[in-house]
Amino acid sequence: MVKYSVGILVLFLFQCHPKMEIYLLKSEMIQKLNNPTEINPDLNCLSNLSYVPDTSVVFADTKKIIRMNIHFMNNSRRNENYDGEKGIEYAKYLIYHANRKLAFNKKMNLPIGNNNPAYNPLYEYVLTPLKKDGVDEGIYFHYDDSLYYYINEGKRNNYKRDVINKYAVGNDTILNVFYMVHHPDSIRSNTYSASGSGIALGTNIKLGTTYNQKDDPWLYASLLNHEVGHVMGLNHSWNTNDGCDDTPLNPNCWASTGIDPCDGIISNNMMDYNTNQHAISPCQIGKIRKNMSKANSLQRKLLQKRWCKTDVHKDVFIRDKKTFHGAKDLEGNLHIMEGGELRITCRLSMPENSEIIVNPGGLLILDGATIHNDCGKFWKGIKIVRSGKNFGKVYYGKPSNLENLEIPISFETESNKL
Ligand SMILES: [Zn+2]
To answer: Does domain 64-293 have CATH number 3.20.20.70?
Structure first.
């Protein structure tokens, strides 16, 4: 009797809902937008702020993973740096703490009284071996009496690339970090400052440290983040115009001393020199992610290409009015739901075999968009869902482009291809 009742109910529901039909978008189904809304010039494809992760749309901005390895430079007696199991453990903890600092990004101290939010920058490092032989962990030990040390004063060698030329591996796709020590003679000198210091040289970083087994592995985590900040395209913020309005010039105080100019609130920015270095401003995050989004950029080549294959757990759902301002690399399908309106204004990479589904009552606006698959594979295209008289709509404003489709669509080209 119970089963019979459910059967009637199911039949009843089917009769009440119009049939859903799905069409693959064709050129003639795309309409020109009659009254295009002006796009904020501060949020175009080249603007840093266009790349601040949009936390209101889950998985629209995905975490970027930077491939990294660590080289411990030591002398032939193997007593000036971490070695063996200790070194392997230290490298893993160093990266763990550096990633933790990024994820727990703090609000900027400066300018005093600012209300700028502290966003999760959504990037992190992962140890990456060159060889997938199960032995290579991306942690290397080198014993070289002439190249193991770092000098950043007097007879400086910090800017020299000899250690990189000799020991770097895969630095076209892996960020090579050379964990070096200040020369023992330098450390003994009263005039030499053997504090943590570093330099970014292309896709390589040299860190100058002092070796003390009692030191915790978080000690140089912020130094590592600072140098990676340089590799990702950030400048120092205290003394130069770094292109960001939210990182004011400042006296670059290491700590608050109570003496002018280092009294009161001092900078905590990652790209200034201070004890914290735990704040990355929204603009700095945007700048990093913009560089990561540029085709063929040095920064993009260091990333794991997680946007090639479709992960349905990372599908994106648009339920209200949104704009994709900067270039994005989705890792799942894109659904425009009833009441949702999405404007795409830059490059958008869709993973292999993924689709954009515009549901009844949903609206997609291609406004200077290039939608493609960044990995040279096909994606399935845009699908329109119809339910009776109600169907998803696609408009275009500025010339746009759909690429990497098995069945090509052309309506207008010459779009924004950042
Ligand atoms: Zn620096």
So the answer is: no
